[in-house]
Amino acid sequence: MTGVSPAIAQHAVHTDDLDCVREAVTNAITTHRLDRLGQEDVNARFSAVQINNLGVMRLKYGTAIRIEADAPKLPFHLIQVPVRGSAVIVSGREEMTSTSDIASVLDPRRHCSMQWAPECTQVIVRVDDAHLQRHLQSLIGRPASEPLRFELAMDLRSSRGRSWRAALDLLLTEMQRPGGLLEHPLLESQLESVLLTGLLLAHRHNYSAALRAQQHPAAPRPIKSTLERIEKHPEFPLTIEKLANDAGVSVRALQQGFHDLVGCSPMAYLREVRLNRARDALASADPRSGASVTDIALDWGFMHLGRFSVEYRRRFGESPSQTLRR
After folding, report:
1. Residue 6: is its pLDDT beyond 90?
2. Which CATH number is associated with domain 9-205?
3. pLDDT digits (tens, 9 = 90+) for 183-201
4. CA-CA to 257 of 20 to 30 Å: which in 83, 91, 288, 298?
């Protein structure tokens, strides 16, 4: 991000000193450990700017690097987009290889480990969890009942992924235009809103279905109340008949309303919420303490363990036992 407008420029470093770049990244992001793995000379470049509530950075080390960071006291979300090279990312018990087609969205409540290839250069967007939660709540029209959790890998090849990347590219372009519109606070806030809303719409997380329901702001109260009930207590023994009765509508009306506004049936939505909660429980459980796939599946309302395993693998690309062991 050389040539960044002086009105928004914050920090830039070009150094062969690993401690120097570690200090700069710590100041902009968080405390972390940095180990050199490659034989190449360190040729680190780091630039960081603050755009309203977003920290936008570009970082490369010029040699293979391992980065370790614990969950910060004040959680924040970090979206990393490689513009060159690749990186292996481990967040909690999830692992991925990030490339220019697949960004990483780190879980702010989990330990993170990364290995960057020598040529890896990444654009990084940082946003505080509290700010993103408020933005989410403004979109779904109610308080968020649990922390926002994204999937680790964000596909930038999908239509929405490409749109989000285009919005990021627009921001990066405007940052390098001295005297441009980005220096006006109104455009800063607008671009921030586009990036945050786009992230929430383009990337899968535990409120994705709730956002789909908000595509129709005049959604009937029975649909919204059913969504809230499922999200609050997905472990309860809920049936379509009970949900419809409690919402004061017929089964057919509830099913049709969900298909029209959420894009799936009430029971499919319930299954998705349960799968997400089960995955969180498996990822945080310690098998040495006696935690088992069976117990966790039952805790979240899955009575048929074989079907749970099939649905879990289809949804997350691995078996429940693999998540528990990792």
Report:
1. no
2. 2.60.120.10
3. 777 778 888 999 999 999 9
4. 298
